[in-house]
Design goal:
The complex is a heterodimer of chains A (about 150) and B (about 375). Chain A has 4 helices and 3 strands. With about 150 residues, chain A is α+β, with helices and mostly antiparallel strands. In chain A, α1 packs antiparallel against α3 (about 90-100). Chain B has about 375 residues and is an alpha+beta fold. Chain B contains 13 helices and 6 strands. Chain B has a 4-stranded antiparallel beta sheet with strand order 3-4-5-6. Chain B starts with 8 loop residues before the first helix and ends with a helix. The chains are: A alpha+beta (about 150), B alpha+beta (about 375). At the A-B interface, α1, β1, β2, β3 and α4 of A face β1, β2, β3, α7 and β4 of B.
Amino acid sequence: MDTSPHLARPQWMSLLAQSDPADLAAAMDAFAPPADLTWLRPAQTGLYMLRGRIGGTGPQFNFGEITVTRCSVQAGDHIGHAWVRGSNTRHAELAALADAMLQDDQQQVPLRLHVIEPLRRALDRRRDEASRRAAASKVEFFTVVRGE
Amino acid sequence: MYVAVKGGEQAIARSLEHLAEARRGDTAVPELTLKQIREQLRLGVARVMQEGSLYDEELASLAIRQAAGDMLEAIFLLRAYRTTLPRFGYTLPLDTSAMRVRRRVSGTFKDIPGGQVLGPTYDYTQRLLDFGATPPAAAVLADAPLASPMPRVLDLLDAEALIERIEPGSDPEPVDLTREPLMFPADRATRLQNLARGDEGFLLGMAYSTQRGYAESHPFAGEIRMGEVDVVVCPEELGFAIEIGSITLTECQMINQFHGGNGLPPQFTRGYGLCMGEGERKAMSMALVDRALRCDELAEPNYAPAQNQEFVLSHSDSVEASGFVQHLKLPHYVDFQAELSLLRTLAAQHAADSDEPLLSAVGGQQS
């Protein structure tokens, strides 16, 4: 069981995929890519079939497809993978590279500090703003009481 | 006899140039950027993605520009493009109960946990053309975000056992219409895949027919929610699930009166609609048609067009429909010659058999 307060690998991979590609590129800019990089699987765009559930809770049905770009890279002893929605190859490459580097104990600490944490905060802020913008259009009903 | 006719290559080449010029329009006007289309025509982008059956805003924007705004042509372009991409796999089922809601309304209950949230809707506009320049609008932010997760309205009725429950059961592998042909009778999962990529206009008309009496339908919009949902995949290389991003979805839970039958007690039954992007009209239409197509399962009289799955599912796809309708423009010279000579023979026989001259017989009804 992961008792650390930090994000585990599935969470950081999710975060890298959910982040704005420009934010990720800016954050990764400070980190020189390792010298011994091997692109095991260059970024490739393909499709996943989205699945829904009947009524939201029932049996599955095939809903329609989505473009996804995947990429795998080896840095030292570590292999980084990425699957990101859309066809932005740079996003997939940076996410795979960050995934490989985050598996390295030496690099993990500065990466968590300068990449993962700022991206997490940016994502939280974007979601909070979207939710509060929607909340501003919440209906307040007024009931007119007639008679006494 | 089959006669091959060649020709027209040069005319076709000139026509394509003419089309390219017409598509671009006045070159003194800057060309639309894909970002402009994506940001300012987002509802059109959503429709092209949904019926093109491919969630990718950039490709849908490109298709809209290339098709000069003809949505059905853009949908066709997107469908054709998807066949060039490899299929990586299937996502885990989208969890719409965890949706980060931006709009959520119910036509059945006023006071619902989480509230009625209007979000960005045209419902309360006056539908008056606004001739002024669109001023940059800044939406106000509330002090607190919405409830997360937003509870489902239908769970309120579920507590009283007055609404049908939809459980995954053995969670069977659904038919995939991109790989298998449509066969009848089609189960509900197959029907929903067909309806999801079906033409909005066709489904809207079908849904409207159920409300006007062509099926036993007494629907209420139990809940409509729109917002962002995480897309989760579990690649073999990893062996664990990860989010790959989020997409905007609109979900409609329609509830319909049901007097009981087929061993089921009287209860509310449900129709389901799901749509990419902000597509409320499509999601509601889909939910109404989904419910109408359940007539056999619920032992309801099956007489209306919207209840006939062969009729609905065979004619819902705009790519197929527009291809078949528009193929009539292609040369049918030989077929038509055959029909013409047959008709001349019949007309001559008719004239020989009857006393009246042919022309006055044909024109007789008009006088």
